[in-house]
Amino acid sequence: MKKRRRSGILAAFIAAAGLCGAPAQAAPVAPYSPQRLEQLMDKVKTADKACPGGCGLEAAMNRYNIHPSLVTSKQMDIFAPGYGAAIAGRQQGNNMYLNGGYNDAKLIETVAHEVRHAWQKRELGAVSAQLDPRRALILNRFREADAFAFGIYFTYRVEQATGKTLVKVPADPRRYKDMHPYYQIYAMFKLNMDSGMPLSASYRYLVQDCFEHVNRVDYDGDLLQELEERAKKMTPGQQHTMPEATFTQILRRMGTPGFEGGYGAFEAWSDADLRDLHKSGGISADNLARLVKLEAAPPTSAPPAPPQAPGR
Q: I want to staple 281 with a disulfide (CB 3.0 to 4.6 A). Which of 91, 211, 263, 303 is the partner?
């Protein structure tokens, strides 16, 4: 069996862990204990209230009935065999699995990131099942950039609420270049906010930086591989049924520093902007060739389910 490709995403997680998400070295409670989970979620609730009008994170968790739990890197291997240590968290159904080997700073950001994905799917209907390859690629970019941006924004609110530093940022902006690229994004957002830039403008820059991050660690490549593997198992048919107006509306509702609407980073984007691969980070020549090849293939649909035995 061909080994599944693991792109720069995992490498980025591993590198980032060395700066801000490193495994906890000394904690007042056991890293995988119920006590630690309770303390962690208390910090999340405190930060949630620090957002102007509330971030809405706790309300979203309650609304979607999401249950967090702490697990080991070995248990995380179920999502990516052999790479569990590189996964800080994963949301599946109503369960959110958090890798207790990471420190609170990384896990708080991960909670925000994963709840954001649940909101995208359940509130916006941001799923790719009804999309052609190009729109699936665009949707994936928007989902990840939106989730990364909200996680960074929430981390900033945690620092405000607790008075504690979660991400060490050099006092001299000229030294930001020495930080891991992902945390350079946080540093620039913090600088903009602390300098008095309006949240609307700061968040717009933040989202654009997150698009670049998504492109840099090659989320496109991972999704294209999934689409290529899926195409081998499909049968001829038609599945690209989501209306274009519905698709662009879903994209435009992302890019907000909360769950209840308000300013959105994509409000000023035209429909053409939303569909433009270059506007949302660009695309490599290799990935573009793979996308074009997928687009040239006949439309497909999932194979029919096998008949069930009587009474089942």
A: 211
